[in-house]
From TrEMBL:
Family of the protein in this entry: Belongs to the ABC transporter superfamily. Ycf16 family.
Keyword Amino-acid biosynthesis part of the UniProt annotation: no
Organism annotation: Liquorilactobacillus capillatus DSM 19910
NCBIfam families associated with the record: sufC (TIGR01978)
Keyword ATP-binding carried by entry: yes
GO MF annotation, one: ATP binding
InterPro entries linked to this entry: AAA+_ATPase, ABC_transporter-like_ATP-bd, ABC_transporter-like_CS, FeS-cluster_ATPase_SufC, P-loop_NTPase
The entry's keywords: ATP-binding, Nucleotide-binding
Lineage: Bacteria, Bacillati, Bacillota, Bacilli, Lactobacillales
Domain ABC transporter, chain residue ranges per copy: 4-246
Coiled coil (UniProt feature): none
Protein name: ABC transporter ATP-binding protein
Amino acid sequence: MSKLEVKDLHVSIDGKKILKGVNLTMNTGEIHAIMGPNGTGKSTLSQAIMGHPAYKVTQGEVLLNGENILDLPVDERARAGLFLAMQYPAEIPGITNAEFIRGAVNARLPEDKSLSIRKFLKKLDKTMQVLDMTEEMADRYLNEGFSGGEKKRNEILQLMMIEPKFAILDEIDSGLDIDALKVVSRGVNQMRGPEFGSLIITHYQRLLNYIVPDVVHVMMGGKIVKQGGPELAKRLEDEGYTGLRDELGLDIKLVDEEA
């Protein structure tokens, strides 16, 4: 079992404080969801965990199996077992999907255990079938010309091929129709097991109907203010965030109220 711990994490971007003391602990074998209103710091948390240089950690720790990873560059965090499915994946012309994924897979393996092309292609073909992806997707340049749904499926394809310890899924449901949502959820659910954990960032309950979380965290004002089981997400879907904020006595102005 592996453990990911976020302790008293404070993060700023362009001098503006976004995270103001986030605490979270999860183990492999668990699926956690983070919900919260716009502008509360959910995506900032994902970027800070992975080491995006624009996000400055001013206080706190991120521990992977007890080791603080904040001084590690992004590639070393990935090799250690972290994965981020981005909300807006970049288009990279000149390198095919298959080339990129094979490089990422082998980067996490010892040199004497790297996947041969034959074994890699066999696994890639099988995984693409799970995600209802056509064979030609493997030969297209990474995300270039992909629709929003294709990009999200491609992120899950990478996840399933790389097999990280912990995957952070940043609004993987954004822009998906119901059929694509089911396919993406199928891929994540296939990964569930004692050697895999996932932190799912979402606005909507509908994703959590297909990927049922063990723990739901609610973020407001740059902190996690409440956690519970799947029923908490259903409550937020029914009642919104204002009622929970008022119940907790939080002096926080929600973005939607400012519009």
